[in-house]
Amino acid sequence: MSTTLLQELQGELRRLYIAGSDLAADDFRLKRIEPKLAQLGERAPVFKKLAEGIAELTGPSEAEARASRLQDVSLLLNSVLSTQGATAPGGDMSAEKPADSGLTDLTTSRSYRQLAEVQNALSTSGGGRYEIVTTAHRDGLFRDLRLFPFAMKALNDPYAELADYAVRYILPSYGRVIVPYLLADLNLQGGREEERRLEVVRTLGVDAGDKRSLARLVQAAEEGSDKVRAAAISCLGTHPDFENRLIEWSLDKKKPVREGALAALAVRNSADARERLYDAFVGKDAIPAAQAIGAAPAEEMLARIIPLYAERLREEYAGEEDRKSKDKLWSALEPFTIAFRNAEHPQLERLYLDFCGHPNAYPALGRLDYAERFRVLSQAARYLENTDTEEALEVLYALEEQSPDFLPYAFHATKRRRSPAELYDRYAGSGRGRLREAVSKKAQAIQKKLIETLHGEIHVYDNYVRRRLPQDVIETQWDPRWLDWTIDRGDLELVSGFAAPGNPRLLPFLRKQVEKNASPYYENYIFSALDAGDYDEDTKYGLLMSWMENKDWKKIYSIYPDEIERLTGIPDRFAADAADRLEPLIANARFESLKETMQEVVHSLRRRAAGAE
Question: What is the C-alpha to C-alpha distance for residues 47 and 1, in angstroms, rounded to an integer?
Answer without folding.
Answer: 12
